[in-house]
Inverse folding.
C-alpha cells in the first residue's frame, strides 16, 4: 500500500490547489478574465510540450510530470467554462414546462462546446503520446473527462443534495437544469463502476513497477477523488467548505453571499430565483 501513498498525496494536493486556483481566478473582476485566459493558454502550451517530452520516458518522475501537465490542460477547460468563454449556444434558464428529450437537449446545449473541446483535447493528447510507454497524461485526462461526465449526468438525472455556491453568478442559469430528488439506479450504477475501476487501477499499480506503477497509482487517486465527489451529491455535507479560501468574491465590496444548498424536496433554482436569492442574502449581511 505504500506504493499508493505518495501518488495519492500528490494527486490530492495538486487537485485541491488547482481547483482552488481556478475558482480564485474566476472570482476576480471580469476585466481580468481575458488576461487569465491568455496566461492559462500559454501554460497549456507548455503543458502540451511537457506531455510530448515525457511520453517516451518510463520513470516515476515522468509519470508525475505528465499527470501535472494533464491537470494544467484540464484547468484551462474549467477556467474557460466558468468564465463563459467556452460553454454552449444556450445560455438561458430551463423553461418550466421543459421535460424529457427537450429538457435534455436544452441542457446539453448549455455546455456542448465545452464537452467537444475536452473531447478534442483527449484526441490531441492521445495522438501526442501514441505508442509511447508513458500514457499517464492520456489516462489522466480521459478519467477526468469520464468522471466529470458521470457527475453531470447524475446531477441532471437527480441527486438528493447539491450546492450552487461554486457557480459564478453569470452561470446560475445552469441550476435550473438540476434535479433535486433521491438518487436513482443510475447513481448506484455510476458509483459501482467507479468502485470497480478504482479497485482495478489500485491492483494494477501494486502489480506494476517504475513509472507504470506510478501512473496507475495516480489514476487510482483520481478515481478515488471522483468517488468522494460523487458522494457529496448524496450526503448533506458540502465540498464547497474545502474551497472557501478561494471563493471570496473580490468583485464585491461586501462579503459574498452564503452557500445556496439545495436539498430533497426543493426545486432547482431558476435564473431569476438564483439572482434574487443572492441579492437578498447580500443585502442581509
Amino acid at each position: 500500500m505504500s506504493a499508493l501513498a505518495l501518488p495519492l498525496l500528490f494527486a490530492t494536493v495538486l487537485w485541491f490547489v488547482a481547483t482552488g486556483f481556478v475558482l480564485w481566478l474566476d472570482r476576480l473582476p471580469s476585466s481580468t478574465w481575458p488576461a487569465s485566459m491568455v496566461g492559462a493558454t500559454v501554460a497549456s502550451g507548455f503543458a502540451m510540450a511537457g506531455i510530448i517530452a515525457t511520453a517516451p520516458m518510463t520513470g516515476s518522475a515522468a509519470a508525475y510530470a505528465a499527470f501535472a501537465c494533464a491537470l494544467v490542460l484540464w484547468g484551462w477547460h474549467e477556467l474557460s467554462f466558468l468564465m463563459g468563454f467556452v460553454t454552449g449556444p444556450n445560455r438561458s434558464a430551463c423553461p418550466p414546462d421543459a421535460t424529457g428529450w427537450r429538457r435534455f437537449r436544452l441542457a446539453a446545449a448549455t455546455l456542448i462546446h465545452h464537452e467537444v473541446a475536452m473531447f478534442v483535447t483527449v484526441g490531441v493528447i492521445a495522438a501526442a503520446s501514441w505508442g509511447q510507454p508513458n500514457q499517464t497524461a492520456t489516462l489522466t485526462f480521459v478519467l477526468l473527462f469520464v468522471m466529470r461526465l458521470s457527475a453531470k449526468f447524475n446531477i441532471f438525472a437527480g441527486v438528493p443534495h447539491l450546492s450552487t455556491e461554486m457557480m459564478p453568478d453569470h452561470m446560475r442559469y445552469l441550476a435550473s437544469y438540476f434535479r433535486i430528488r433521491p438518487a436513482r439506479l443510475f447513481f448506484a450504477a455510476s458509483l459501482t463502476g467507479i468502485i470497480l475501476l478504482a479497485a482495478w487501477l489500485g491492483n494494477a499499480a501494486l502489480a506494476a513497477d517504475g513509472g507504470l506503477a506510478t501512473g496507475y497509482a495516480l489514476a487510482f487517486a483520481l478515481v478515488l477523488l471522483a468517488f468522494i465527489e460523487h458522494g457529496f451529491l448524496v450526503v448533506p455535507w458540502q465540498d464547497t467548505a474545502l474551497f472557501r479560501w478561494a471563493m471570496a468574491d473580490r468583485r464585491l465590496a461586501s462579503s459574498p453571499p452564503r452557500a445556496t444548498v439545495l436539498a430533497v424536496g426543493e426545486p432547482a433554482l431558476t435564473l431569476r430565483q438564483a439572482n434574487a436569492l443572492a441579492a437578498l442574502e447580500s443585502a442581509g449581511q
Q: What stands out?
A: Residues 70 and 137 are 5 Å apart (CA to CA). The first helix runs from residue 2 to 26. The radius of gyration is 19 Å.
